Amino acid sequence: MSETTQPLTIRILTVNTHKGFTFFNRRFILHELRDAVRNVSADVVFLQEVLGTHDKHSNRYTNWPEVSQYEFLADTIWTDFAYGRNAVYPAGHHGNALLSKFPILRYENRDASISGPERRGLLHCVLKGPNDIEIHAICVHLGLQEGHRRQQLEMLCELIRAEVPDNAPLIIAGDFNDWRMRAGQILKQGAGLEEVFVEAHGRERKTFPARFPLLALDRIYVRNVRIHQPIKLSMRPWSHLSDHAPLAAELTL
What we know:
Largest sheet: 6 strands, mixed
Shape: globular
Number of domains: 1
Strand order of the largest sheet: 3-4-2-1-12-11
Domain Endonuclease/exonuclease/phosphatase: 32-244
Protein name: Endonuclease/exonuclease/phosphatase family metal-dependent hydrolase
GO molecular function: endonuclease activity; exonuclease activity
Strand content: 25-35%
Distance between the termini: 8 Å
Oligomer: single chain
Mean pLDDT: 94
Organism: Pigmentiphaga litoralis
Pfam families: Exo_endo_phos (PF03372)
């Protein structure tokens, strides 16, 4: 970005949607979740565990949307969206998605699965901001096993080194499942990334379980961002909409 270019401030949100159900899958709450996501007024939304389709649920719930969950959440607010299908099963599939008020120039879902039944992906999108600035956004959902997470973090660093220009704004957000707090050092050393809440408050924000957060599983990492400021979200209604609490931040590029 040149010195004459006006700074661009964007608001982002990341949330594990838990496939549109409350904790323990007791209630289908996708409509309430859509209202909560809208109220944050984010320009870019990073979604994990979002359903592309599910034949059994669509027949069981009368208020099941006729389109995919990510299209339903985007509605008329976010004009562009991208979906990375990760887990596929007889009834349907789910994965990561990104909703954007900026045009999505291109995107790729990189398979980050290691072994066993867990299917994971890195959804890499390139957004067109004002003055044709290209913003790289990667939505992640890493594995439950520490060995798998470390390999996936190395994959993420390799992707950044290969496909993200050194001077391009970069935002990475999602569910890292990093309860042992290893991701920050790997991403800082391997790709020069900073975590928004760590930089602002000295530690990651606890997000799981949503009602009584004990673990900092969800993160927002950035590079080539002038200012990054976490946004404090209220516990309600979020604590009843997923097993993960969301994270939000304002970024000035």
